[in-house]
Design goal:
Largest sheet: none
Shape: elongated
Helix content: 55-70%
Strand content: under 5%
Distance between the termini: 55 Å
Organism: Caenimonas terrae
InterPro entries: Pilus_4_PilW (IPR013360), TPR-like_helical_dom_sf (IPR011990), TPR_rpt (IPR019734)
Keywords: TPR repeat
Pfam family, one: TPR_1
Order of helices and strands: HHHHHHHHHHHHHH
Protein name: Type IV pilus biogenesis/stability protein PilW
């Protein structure tokens, strides 16, 4: 594997990885994302531009990413120690270290790592995004908002739809419903296929009593294979508010057939539409 391919592979692995926490429609864990992940987060270099220390560090970094993706966090951390020994100015190493500590619920170490990554490369939108999500988990909403805005300040950042989604979720947690709606709507415009964005936008609109608008988003989601018990239940509540009994019963049949033991099925059986 040549150095250019290795650099791209590592960027892809770190391009958009963040922990979902207790979000609705849990996103699972951190994993590599496909697609264009160059993001112009680092200056464009050729293989001959990199010093030997960075090349050695990048090879070890690839191992660390692989171990992390396999859930071997302790081994990944050991590899990152070697990466940082080889090149203590390698920002990707600190970004990955932050993600690992975040997964281990060591927020102090995670924050220190993300801050170091950003200080080494202020254009690293991925590190800014991950740092923003950590701050949001701690209820530091203004700081989180600045980090998300910092991530999107890079005009070549390819993952702004996901950062807007995270920003909107964070704003909703902070009680800033108008801001949350704007962020989620902008995210939806950029990536209408993201189920987390669609669900949370529909749920926000439902809570605000905008049932027809909520119906638009939740129906689109429930008409895909990504529908689950939570999305079907929200759809049922929306249709109930709009007095569309036919649509409501169709969704209820799906819920009963596909998720008979779910909490949402229990809500439906009790008629607990306002819980």
């Amino acid at each position: 594997m040549n150095d250019a391919v290795r650099r791209e592979k590592l960027r892809t692995a770190l391009a958009w990885c963040w922990l979902a926490g207790a979000l609705l429609l849990a996103l699972g864990g951190c994993a590599a994302r496909n697609g264009d992940a160059t993001g112009a987060n680092v200056d464009i270099v050729t293989a001959s531009d990199e010093p030997d220390a960075r090349k050695r560090a990048r090879i070890r970094m690839e191992l660390a990413v692989g171990y992390f993706e396999q859930g071997q966090t302790t081994v990944a951390l050991d590899e990152l120690k070697q990466v940082i020994l080889a090149d203590p100015t390698f920002p990707d190493a600190y970004n990955l270290r932050g993600l690992i500590y975040m997964k281990l619920n060591d927020m102090k170490q995670a924050e220190e790592s993300f801050r170091r990554a950003v200080s080494l490369n202020s254009k690293d939108s991925n590190a800014q995004h991950n740092y923003g999500w950590l701050l949001c988990q701690q209820g530091r909403y203004d700081e989180a908002n600045r980090a998300f805005n910092g991530a999107m300040a890079n005009p070549l950042y390819a993952e702004r739809a996901k950062t807007l989604m995270a920003k909107g979720l964070c704003e909703a947690r902070a009680g800033r419903k108008d801001d949350a709606e704007r962020s989620l709507a902008r995210s939806y415009e950029l990536d209408a296929a993201n189920p987390v964005t669609g669900f949370n936008l529909a749920n926000l609109l439902f809570q605000r009593g905008e049932y027809s608008r909520a119906q638009f988003y939740i129906r689109r989601l429930n008409n895909t294979e990504l529908a689950n018990a939570e999305t079907l239940w929200l759809g049922i509540k929306v249709e109930q508010k709009l007095n569309d009994r036919v649509a409501m019963m169709q969704l209820a049949d799906q819920l009963k057939r596909r998720f008979p033991q779910s909490r949402e099925m229990g809500f439906y059986d009790r008629g607990a539409f306002n819980e």
